[in-house]
Structures are given as C-alpha cells and as structure tokens.
Structure prediction request, 340 residues.
Amino acid sequence: MITRIRPLDDDALDEAARLIRGGSLVAFPTETVYGLGADALNDEAVKSIFAAKNRAADNPLIVHICRYEQTFIYATERPFYRELALRFWPGPLTMILPAANALIAPSVRCGLATIAFRSPSAAGARALIERSGRPIAAPSANLSGRPSPTTAAHVYEDMNGRVPLILDGGPCAVGIESTVLDLTGEIPVILRPGIVTAEQLRAVTGEVRIHPAALAQLAAGEKAASPGMKYKHYAPRARVTVVSGRRRVETLQSLYDQTANAVLLVSAATAARLRGKIELCGNGDAASAAHELFSALRRCDELGCEQIFAEGYDASDEGLGVMNRLLRAAAFDHIDTDQL
Ligand code: AMP
Ligand code: MG
Prediction:
C-alpha cells in the first residue's frame, strides 16, 4: 500500500471522508496526538486498525464524535456526563459510558460492556467526523508500544505502507493523549491522566478518584480497569530512566557522567545547569513538557543513544499526565531523589 501525506485542506478532507465511509483507514490530527481512524460502525474497518498498529486485540478504542448528544444513540447516560461534556468538550477528555446496544462495532470495545467517547476540538478532526457522517474509532496512529505521534512525519515513520492517507495538520497542540474518565461507577475514576486534571474535573463532579495504575505498574495477575494499562507504552528504542525530586539535577549529571552513549532529556531551565548531550523537552512546566515529550523521545532515538535520563515532574495536576507517560516509557525505572 502506498501512503500519501496531504496537507489538511478541503479537498483532502473530502478524500479522507470518502475513505472512511468506504471502510478504509485515515490518519488525522487531533489536539492531543494523531489518530488512526476508521468508521466505528464498520467492524471490518475497525479490525484493520488493530492490524495496522499491531495492537493487542483486547485493548479497546475511543470513539470520536462531534456533539455530546450523539453518544445517546449508542450508550447510556451517567451522572455528570452532560455537565462534563458542556465544560470540557470539545477537548482532551474521554468519557466511558455503558454501551446501550451493539451499534458500535464489537471490535471497538473488545468485549467490554462500556464504550469510550471523545469530542475532539481540532478543526480537522471535527471536519472529518462531520464529512464522513460516522463516529470515528481512533487510537493513536503509532505502532503499538512506540511513542504516540504528534506530527504527520511521526505517523509516516510508523505507518508507511499501512495506511493510505495521512492528513497533515501540523504539530498537535496538547501532545499527550486525552484524560480517560470512567463514569460507569459511583465515583468517576481517572484511568489515564492527561491535560484535563483531576482538580478541574472535581470542580464539576465533587469527587474523582485516580486509578493507582496512573503511576504504578499493575501487580502480576491484577485485572486492568482499562486494558491499555497493562501494555508497554510510549517506548523509544533506548532504555529510559526517570529522575525526579529536588536533587534531580545533580543526580542526572552523575548518572550521565557514569554512562556510555547516554542523553539527558530535560527542560530548557534544567539544561542550563547540566553538561553533556541534551535533548530539550519543554521550558520547565509540565504542560510544555507534555507538548514536546513524544517528539523528544523520537529525537533521542534518532541520536542512536542507548540510555535516556529523563527529568521527572511532580505527579500532580498536568505533571501527573507527563509522569504517567514517562514512567511507562521507562518501564517504571524511576529514581525519586526525595526518597533516597
Ligand atoms: P489510545 O487511543 O491508543 O490512546 O488508547 C485508548 C485508551 O483508552 C486505552 O488505554 C484503552 O485501554 C482505553 N479505553 C478505550 N475504551 C475503553 C473502555 N471501554 N474501558 C476502559 N478503557 C478504555
Ligand atoms: Mg495509543
């Protein structure tokens, strides 16, 4: 299969919408990361997403819609759903609702009784949903296990030959995937932290729990609330070690000095205090780190380094989403200098 990249314009959107309606895949930009989309009502099309990504068959997909009322066709409403949709949609929040029927293709939810929905804010994503006239199932447009793509070039790196069309809408604004919030229980639970924070959600719902798997490895044999929790994620080819806490700068320097073929992945503020091979990731705050994290991990790979020492963040607010991605990229290899 030949993979074409087209700038996201009117004509390219028309072609993309035709492809989606015809059961093909299209990679497209959202405000979080690039998605690999298919008609969520067409099971064969959805299955081809799993094949193109090498995605585990039990890891369900998020269904993208434009208006919150569209979920009522497929799912049952839950407390706070409307309030959250009115406050955070369109935007980087995914909400999990009980499935009401089998209209959404079975491969989307992989046998679960629930469906994850999101209404993206990126204009190109919205236009693709509108023009195709379908809910669009889309995971991130990377090979499973690799850092999520935040540019069309990243998608091409992983998906060349696996998808007919990549819509290029430039770099993604947010840079990490949506916050995933499970609304099916009594208290809403964050299954995957993102740029919409627990505090922001609590302002609407009162209570919100954060699933322990946000920052820790599942225990052997523990059942994953969200199947994505149990897979290796976001990993560059090099080994990654996360170093956080008040003495991170000295620790990063000494680890770097003792390791052959290493690179430091740090903010611009921290870089000014370090010597060595450096890849920049953000200017010191967690939101800017989120924006650059996945492309910075890919750049580290291009350097051909074997070990990345990455600066960690306080695991609160937006930092929680960044630490969730970093710790998974590091397979939970983490030095917290406040605990030494
Ligand atoms: P991705 O689109 O690649 O960012 O992955 C979507 C994430 O949402 C994965 O971690 C999935 O496991 C999770 N997810 C999707 N649908 C559900 C669902 N019905 N219940 C729990 N988690 C879900
Ligand atoms: Mg993904």
About this structure: The chain has a mean pLDDT of 96.
